[in-house]
Amino acid sequence: MSKSLFEVLCLITGAAFAIAFAIIVVPALLATGDVPGAFAAGFVNPFSTGYSIDAILCAVLLIIWVIYERSTLGIKYGWIAIPLSFVPGVAVGFAYYLILRSRSIKAA
Fold first, then answer.
1. pLDDT digits over 67-81, tens only?
2. Fewer CB within 10 A of the end CB, N or C, for the chain?
3. Range of the domain at 32
4. CA-CA distance, 67 to 61, in Å (whole number)?
C-alpha cells in the first residue's frame, strides 16, 4: 500500500467517525446536557462496558505512544492527537496521529 493511499484511508476513517459522532452523539448531548450521564451510558451492560473499556485503553495506549515518539522520533504536534482521542474519539486521534507520523517519517 502506498503512503498516500494509507493517509487517505486514515483520513476517511477518522472523518467517518467524526461525522457519526456529530450525528449520533452531539444532538443527544445538546438535548440533555448530561456529560456524566453520557459517559455512564457506555457502562450500562457487560457488552457496552467491554467496548468502553477497549476505547479508554486504546486512548491510553495512543497517549503513551505519542509521548514516546515525541522523544524518540521527534514527531511534532503529536500532542494534538491526545485531546482528539477524547472528543470526538480515539478513531479521530489515532487517524490524525497515523497521518502525522507518516508525514514526519517521510520527511525525515
1. 999 999 999 999 999
2. N
3. 3-107
4. 10
